[in-house]
Every structure is written in C-alpha cells, then in structure tokens.
Amino acid sequence: MRIGVLVSGRGSNLAAILEAAARGVVPEVALVVSNVATCPALEIARRAGVATRVVDPAVFAVRPDHDRAVAAALGAARVDLVCLAGYVRLIGAPLIEPFAGRILNVHPSLLPAFPGLHAPKQALDRGVRIAGCTVHFVDAGMDSGPIIAQAAVPVLPEDSEESLAARILVEEHRLFPAAIRWIADGRVRQEGRRAVWTDSPRTAGALESPTPGVRS
Length: 216
Fold this sequence. Notes:
The protein is of the alpha/beta class. It has helices at 12-22, 40-47, 63-76, 93-96, 119-126, 161-184, and strands spanning 2-7, 28-34, 52-54, 81-84, 103-107, 130-137, 147-154, 188-191, 194-197.
C-alpha cells in the first residue's frame, strides 16, 4: 500500500504520518499534494525525501477540474490510500470516486459535533466538558463520513482555543497513524455509512493504539 497525503497548512499531522512510516508501522508515503504552494507541510515532505506536487485551484475554472487533477496526480504516483492532513478544501466526486472507501480525514472534534473550521472554538463556545478528535472516511459532505475512531480530551476551565487545540492535536498525532495502520492491515473498511471491523486482523508489528471508539 502507498499513501498520498493532501495538505494545506503547517503539516504536523503529515509529520506524524511520516515518522510512523519511517518506523515501518504505516506504509510508505508516496506523494504529498497541496493546494497552497507556500504551505510549510510541503517543506516537511521535501526534507523527508517525499515527492510533492502543488495543484493550484486558481488555474481551474471549476472545482471538479481541480479534483480531477489531484486524483490524476495521486493515480500517477500509484497511491492506494489518501489521507487528508489539514487539507482545507471540500473534495467532490472526481476525487472521491477513484478512491472510494480509501480516503481518510482527521478532524479536531468528536464528530458529528462541530464539523468545519475552528472546531475547538466551537466546543468552547458551546461549553462542552469533553472535546477530542475523529478519524473518519471521507464523503462529499463536511466532515460527515463514517467514523473509524475517536479520542477524547477534557475541556479545562482555563482553556483557550489555542490550549484546547494543542491538547487535541496530541491525540490526532497518535490516532491518525493508528487508523492508517488499521486500514493497511485490513482491520476496518467502509460499508455504506459505517466503518466495519473484521474479526481476524493482521496485527504483526501494529502501532500501539487505542481500542476503536472514544478514549478519555
């Protein structure tokens, strides 16, 4: 299995995936694609010796053409599994269909609560006591695909958006590589609106990881 990672920002989740790949606990990252030519994540990939590609949305007349170009880049790199790591664009059918059931995202909330941008701020604004992150399969909606696993963190009285986001990010860096390994080992797959787990996973060398579901 070969991984393609889509990025738009600083690349901390990309770095966690690359570190796990370097230890041999998740598959090779074959390509990193960004819609932002100046994003720091691209430099992280280059330092790791991973091929990069910028696909600028501004040069395409309509969104589906951009999705087709991204899909073509991933296909040319023989990517099997696509991971969205801070990718700030909704993706549509021209990208989802060629990789159906093989696109993952990590989101900084316990979905279905607080989809979209600024999830930690949304959590604070609503006064929740527990926040966290979710790894899910990607569909055409906003953070609405089948949930694979979640990890929970407490919301502290003194939390700011920044401090809560930082505590959630620690869990993202742990959970996302774990979910990638589960997919690579055939332990979980997408069936319709659900993530379905197998009874006989290939666990040799598995990344230490939580039980699927919410972990506090």
